[in-house]
Specification:
This protein is α/β, with parallel strands linked by helices. It has helices at residues 17-48, 94-107, 129-142, 169-182, 203-220, 243-247, 316-328, 335-343, 350-360, 368-384, 400-415; strands spanning 72-74, 78-79, 82-88, 121-125, 155-158, 186-190, 223-229, 250-255, 263-272, 281-289, 307-313, 388-390, 396-398.
Length: 416
């Protein structure tokens, strides 16, 4: 069972559950407002779509509309929604890679040289509990993340002090309640085997857990990434029933070995339901000597260095390419959008945002059309490009990516 102190950030500061619950209520209100705006746009489209009909159950005939544009947490690798799996043999660095994904998303730092949207992460850890925080601290030290920028409120850890079985209905319900208050954008479950009490080779047992995971994805509106092992005799897929693969929206395989001499592993896409498979990505395993919070070298009881492994890009050119891609984002923005980013050099309060938008994007009457224009403007900068973040109080700030885009182009303009 989970107790209250199992939900904590990486510096052991407990989350304010009451504040999270209030945030969940406000988040739900925003979703309802956005739903109403989208429904208004749909109604407008229906008025001009020739031959569109709908029955009492809400089933409508197909009509040509704008294309679906997938949203990403990690560009090209991790979509913002769906049920995903990442599997590998023992020793291939599954958990190290999962932690790298969690830390990149929760801080907004590029993963394997690829742009990342800063977002909330929840991590259910069931293997390697004792060393989990050392691995997180190793990542923070390797990339030079300051304590002020550490993900103390964007990374929730569940399961460090007790077992978690998601095919157990009471446990699953309690975890879902906790997650609904936190509202993660990415939920990582490490590993499938440890949160499952059934027979992995029986489809009926596996589908029970699949159903729970799909419910989590739907109710939380997030991406779910499950870490898994390979089969004993078949190492080119996750072990157990094939319905794991069939149900997943995306499947990633890892090959290679991680050890004392580090090594290189390769991420490959075995399945992507809504997009093309991404090209293989290589990660370098780096051995890190951990430091205490005061900066002194970490030592074990025998005086030896305390070490961990951190995954980083094995292709420095890819990181440079990612920086170039981020820099080019500026040129794709309108003057109004560029001006808004410059305005966010300091946090912008809800009232200041309302005053600014009424002047710059003509939201002055409060009509559905005006709200839709405002929603599209913010959605582009927030969800599509990941440049802006709005908290529960409506305060807007730049994400790490937004700050990079602004800083790179600000220096360019000054130099010019």
């Amino acid at each position: 069972m989970i107790n209250d102190n199992q939900t904590a950030d990486i510096f052991d500061k407990p989350f304010d559950i009451e504040a999270l619950a209030n945030e969940a209520i406000e988040h739900n209100a925003r979703l309802i407002s956005e739903r109403d705006d989208l429904q208004a746009e749909i109604n407008e489209l229906r008025g001009v779509q020739r031959g569109y009909t709908e029955n009492a159950e809400g089933a409508g005939m197909f009509a040509l509309t704008s294309l679906y544009s997938p949203k990403w947490l990690i560009d090209g690798i991790m979509p913002a929604r769906g049920l995903h799996s990442m599997f590998a043999e023992s020793g291939a660095g599954k958990s190290f890679t999962a932690i790298a994904i969690a830390m990149s998303v929760s801080t907004g730092r590029p993963f394997a040289g690829l742009p990342v949207k800063k977002a909330k992460v929840a991590y259910i850890v069931t293997e390697g509990r004792s060393g989990f925080r050392n691995r997180c601290m190793g990542w923070i030290q390797h990339f030079g993340i300051s304590e002020a920028d550490a993900p103390t409120q964007t990374l929730m850890i569940i399961g460090e002090k007790g077992s978690v079985k998601l095919d157990n209905e009471p446990q699953a319900r309690r975890i879902l309640t906790t997650l609904e208050a936190y509202r993660p954008d990415l939920l990582i479950i490490d590993t499938w085997t440890q949160v499952f009490s059934g027979d992995e080779n029986k489809q009926i047992d596996v589908m029970k857990l699949n159903s729970v995971l799909q419910t989590f994805e739907k109710k939380l509106g997030c991406a779910v990434l499950v870490i898994d092992h390979t089969g004993h005799n078949n190492t080119d897929r996750a072990r157990g029933s094939k319905c794991k693969f069939d149900v997943a929206d995306g499947v990633i395989s890892l090959t290679g070995k991680v050890g004392e001499d580090a090594g290189v592993i390769t991420l490959s896409c075995d399945k992507a339901r809504d997009t093309a498979n991404f090209k293989p990505v290589k990660l370098q395993a780096n051995v890190i000597n951990l430091k205490e919070l005061d900066g002194s070298e970490g030592k074990d009881m025998f005086g030896r260095p305390v070490t961990t492994i951190v995954m980083d890009t094995a292709d420095p050119a890819a990181a440079a390419k990612a920086d170039k891609a981020v820099k080019q984002v500026w040129g794709k923005l309108s003057e109004v959008e560029q001006g808004f980013l410059m305005l966010l050099d300091k946090p912008l309060g809800a009232n200041e945002w309302a005053d600014w938008r009424s002047t710059n994007i003509w939201v002055n009457g409060g009509s559905t059309a005006d709200r839709s224009r405002s929603s599209r403007f913010l959605s582009k900068l927030n969800y599509k490009l990941g440049l802006v973040y709005a908290d529960a109080e409506g305060v807007m700030t730049l994400t790490d990516k937004g700050r990079t885009v602004l800083d790179l182009n600000t220096w360019e303009r000054c130099d010019g």
